[in-house]
Amino acid sequence: MTLIKKWFLGLSLGVSVSLLAACGGGDEATENTNEEPNTQEEAAAGAEEGAEQREMPEPDLSGVPDIVAEVNGQEVTKEEFETAYAGQFQQAAMQAQMSGQEVDQNQLKEQIAESLVGQELLIQEAGNRGYNVSEDEMDKRLTDLAAQNGLESKEQFLTALEEQGIPEEEVMSQLETQVKVNQLIAEEAGSVEPTEEELQALYEQAKAQQEQMGGEELPAFEELKPQLEEQIKMQKEGEATQALVAKLRENADVAVHI
Predict the structure, then answer these.
(1) How far apart are CA 94 and CA 18, in angstroms?
(2) Of the candidates 127, 172, 132, which has an alpha carbon nearest to the alpha carbon of residue 154?
């Protein structure tokens, strides 16, 4: 699975991975950081303990079968799963480290497998609906991906992927699939434009959380409005995606082997 396909995984997972990390424990881990150690031995011990806390855990991929799941006869392979798991584990591990907890890798594996099943269901449904993808749409998506990766042109982007062993034909095939899934989700989600009430409610929620954490005061509502709009749009698309996956799965032939 390349970076292009990871878009599906992130959208179908939504915020579920972030829930793996417990919310408590963060304050206790940092409340004594301003105290001076009494001796050189204590200072050394504190430095060693801090290094241990900063050390990131390793993903446990033992026992992953060659075929992780089957979706209407289409296989989800071990390679796809391991690539997806490595990226999501890193995110979950960082969140868990901040809270002083450990990642529940068994739970995370189940979530990744289910998300890959959902991804395959979306791809199949997009294919079944017969969407068309224009050359202009492909060019725009390539240009956007190039910019997101700090490259000046779609040609540079394609060359960079080629150097990673991903031929242009595979890139274009995946990109066409992604655009079709975009069309599918847009059709299912309908209008995702947030209302002024939704934007204000999200702002007040963020403001209250910031005050509770004792952080700096949030910028004014109008200044944050573009970010709030994007967040609500993504949330609505994610909810529509998860609802569609649940609906598709009801009539699908799915077997998960992890």
Answers:
(1) 10
(2) 172
The strand ranges marked E within 31-103 are 67-71, 74-77
pTM metric for this prediction: 0.74
129 forms beta bridges with none
CB 182 within 8 A of CB 125: no
Q: What is the pLDDT, as a whole number, of residue 57?
A: 79
Sheet of 67-71, strands arranged across = 74-77, 67-71, 254-256
Three-class SS of residue 190?
Answer: coil
Name the one residue in this structure whose structure tokens are 């071990």.
78
**The one-letter amino acid at 120:** E
Q: In Å, how far from its chain's centre is CA 108? A: 13
8 Å CB contact between 154 and 143: yes
Residue 115: CB atoms within 10 Å: 23
Q: Is it the case that residue 6 has pLDDT exceeding 50?
A: no
Q: Which residues of 70-84 are buried (b: 16+ CB within 10 A; e: fewer)?
A: bbeeeebbbebbebb
CA distances from 125 to 2, 112, 121 (A): 21, 20, 6
Convert the pLDDT of each residue in 231-257 to its tens digit: 999 999 999 999 999 999 999 999 999
Token readout for 55 is 């050390």
Using one digit for the tens of pLDDT, what is the confidence trace for 113-157?
999 999 999 999 999 999 999 999 999 999 999 998 899 999 999
